[in-house]
Amino acid sequence: MRHEQPGKIHRYVTEYIRYLVSERGAARNTVSAYRRDLLDHLRYLENHQIAFPEGVDEDVINRYVDALRGRGLRQSSIARKQSTLRRFYRYLTREGYCPSDPTRLIRTPRRIPHFTGALTREEVDRLFLAVMKSDESPLHLRDKAMLELLYATGLRISELLNLRPGDLNFSLGYLRTMGKGGKERLVPFHETAGLCVQQYLDRGRPQLLKGRQNEFLFLNRSGQRLTRMGFWKVLRQYALQAGITTHLSPHTLRHSFATHLLEAGTDLRLLQEMLGHASISTTEIYTHIDERRMHDLHRRFHPRAKARNRS
């Protein structure tokens, strides 16, 4: 198959983008980013006279990644482009356009840490243990619901505090929020968070309202919408109970949500959509690892390192 000019997008790319929009519901910015990455890849293939897709194999993919490094791209940007290629060639293979996936053995490189501000998983466990030890008063029911929902969704604090009860769909496990620039998005939440919010709605919020009306979900003791400062005081209270004295900010749980999902292997573009970032470069601040933990694991489990420790 003759490779088409990069200016004229290949029909497989057009078909894939149509699939992203119609079946995956991808946002416009996400689709644009995919298109740019794929056109860059096609341009490389054309410049090196490599037929697409039949001439693309694992070696070609590796040489393309080396070329990206040679262009001085950041490691996080290279990882993002690799993610695009993996998803694209997986689609082509599934549709029968490729006999095999040339990216199946290509691993996304580990990324250099350059971001702090998230709790460790162990700190999150301690935080929620402190939250769950609280009593069943209306305010404590609110705190459990609020912190569980925030860590489950990665919402901005302003988005969390602007939620209305009707914004949550408990049967589907999704909520609707209005992000920056007035852009609406749907964000999933898990069953534990949903249960905590339902308990708050049933037994906590009515007592805070005391017969009054308020459209917002999370209220203070006077039945008014909780403020950003009020939320920060709640977070700080439970963090101190859990023995956590660092990394605290109003966005701590949002940062932790993003960090822990990436560590678990979540696709960067999917995380971008959940966080409501207009640009993938904003999401890239989370592409880090705990370098000290990596070195500690290496020292603890590498056979030669263990042998030296025994000597």
Q: Any low-confidence stretches, pLDDT <50, length ≥5?
A: 1-7, 289-293
Number of strands: 3
In the CATH hierarchy, what is the class of the largest domain? Mainly Alpha
> What fraction of residues sit in β-strands?
under 5%
What's the gyration radius in Å?
23 Å
| Form type | elongated
Number of domains: 2
Count of helices? 14
Helix content: 55-70%
Mean of residue pLDDT?
Answer: 85
CATH architecture of the largest domain: Orthogonal Bundle
Would you give an account of this structure?
The model is unreliable at 1-7 and 289-293 (pLDDT under 50). The chain is mainly alpha-helical and 311 residues long. The protein has helices at 11-22, 28-47, 58-70, 75-94, 121-132, 138-153, 157-161, 191-209, 228-241, 252-263, 268-275, 280-283, 291-301, 303-310, and strands at residues 168-169, 174-178, 184-188. Strands 1-2-3 form a three-stranded antiparallel β-sheet. Helix 1 packs antiparallel against helix 2 and helix 6 packs across helix 10 (252-263).
